[in-house]
Structures are given as C-alpha cells and as structure tokens.
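Sequence only, no structure available. Ideas?
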Amino acid sequence: MEWVYLLIAGIFEVGWAVSMKLSEGFTKLVPSVVTAVGSIASAVFLALALRKLPLGTAYAMWTGFGILGTTILGALMFRETISLPQAGCVIMIAAGIIGLKLLS
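Reply:
I predicted one. Tokens follow.
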C-alpha cells in the first residue's frame, strides 16, 4: 500500500505545481486554493508512504514524479519547450525512478 501512497503523493505533487503556475502568483483564487490543498495532500500521502518506505528512496521518487509530471504538463499545457539535452535528463530521472522501484 505504501507504493500506492507514494504514487498518489506524486500525483498531488504535480497537481499543486501546475495549479501554482495557473494561480499567476497567487492572484487567482481557485488555482491558489488548489495549490494549497494539493501541497498538503501531497505531504500527507508522502508521510503515509514513509511509514514503511526508506526516506531516500521515497523522497527521490516523489521529487522525480514531480519533475516528470511537471515537465510533461509544462510542455503540453503551457507550450514550454524541452531541448534534447533536457529530454535526456528527464529520461534519466525516469530510469532512476524505475530502478529505485525495482531495487527496493
């Protein structure tokens, strides 16, 4: 169950980061509230995952989920460009997440 908690924490991590962008510096109410709620939910689910998972593994995967998700959504939603070297680095992060799961 701890892996499910970690995945949910990662989804909330991406959600609050995207909503922060949409809040335009906390000038828009709904995205600002979503940012606050999402960040708390992300921390709560990370804490639940940490009851059984090693700190280093869980934290690395949590931040990795955030990097992957925000990079992809930044490109899709905000038309942010990703250079080839950046894409390569994100792919290495994804490989690291997969490796951490397989080796844990």
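The radius of gyration is 14 Å.
Hope that gets you unstuck.
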